[in-house]
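Fig. S4 source data, part A: sequence.
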Amino acid sequence: MTQSSETESRGFAHTLRTYAQPRVAAMLALGFSSGLPFLLTGNTFGYWLRDEGISLKSIGFLGWVGLAYSLKVLWAPLIDRVNAPFAGMLGRRRGWMFLSQLFVAAGLVAMALTGPSIGLLTVAGVAVFVAFASATQDIVVDAWRIESAASDKELGLLSAAYQLGYRAALLVTDALILISANHLGWPVSYGVMAALMSVGLAATLLAPEPRQSGDTPRSSGSRLSFSWRKAVDAVSGPFIVFFKTHGALALLMLLMISLYRLPDFVMGPMANPFYKDLGLSKDVVGGVRASVGLTFSLLGIAAGGLFVRKFGQVPGLIVGAVLQGFAVASFALLAFFGTSLQLFSVVMAADSFGISFAGVALVTYMSGLTSLGYTATQYALLSSAYAYVGKFLKGFSGDIVERLAATRPLIEAYGVFFLGAGAIGVPALVLCVLLARAHRRRAVA
């Protein structure tokens, strides 16, 4: 064996040992728990609604359920300072994780018991409840991930593990649930998803509580010791520290982050109705997503992590923006050139790889911008910023497709819509390039 091959072998063995660490294993499970509710109140929920004959316009507007994830910055300061009621003995991070996971599971059971057939407003209200509980879980899981990392390299590893677990959950709720719904029905399938929240609950009980930072005062126990100074610091402190740390670049960072995932957000609510209207069966969609989609999601995550590690965070953002735009636009191929299994598989491969690569790049970049002591609130600020514009605009996606369909066939209207959704990623790409130049100028200075 040559010296280089021995080095590679030791490096691979070291990587395996690293991924076997308890914190990384817990991060995988917590990432799965975070990803599980997301599509169940979003795109997969839209498939269920389309099966019940709900209009595209209504499905698009119900995409606003996901705005709960964009509003989480409003209660993140409370999560940063106060222990969870009835679960404070687990620690601040683990207590909130446990409570929010219980609420998500209960909400999914309620969605299974109600469903669109009982009343659209009723099931939409339950979906909003699940989304708020899920957003709370995201706040604290993100804080746990950042606070548990011992170094920047470990933060990158935990971020990749989070994305891997999250993507595994998306596979279950975006692919396998379709096969289940086709044979068992939507209510039973949602009940199974509620049971899978036990993965997150188990990880929460087994995960270590991260050491609290001494950079900012914390409340003790589960009681809130109120003072105006603490209240003002809890709300304004994270934002003041963020802008002091990054200076004039902070606004450019926030603008880029807010536009980065626009293509994915805007096209999201229409993807599953598109498959339904194309005539693709749930078994075909679920099978391709579970095979081709899974494979290329893993490749995208791995490629994103390796690229960012080798070339840096901002170059990773640039490449991710390009891949994401082309991935979303590729759905138009199905509208214009037919629905062969080969073409559908190619589109799924492009989408899974591009979106996964971009996701790792963005999560790693945002994680590196936070300050200990305000981790939950600052990351909630950033993860909310990346969703504000996209989650607002996606509510109009169904209305746009229906308006386009007024002058052309419905499937062709979908194709035009997907091309436009891919193109709206260009502004974020330009901002990434400007950000790269700004970072180079700052490094030289």
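Fig. S4 source data, part B ends here. Confidence is low (pLDDT under 50) at residues 213-226.
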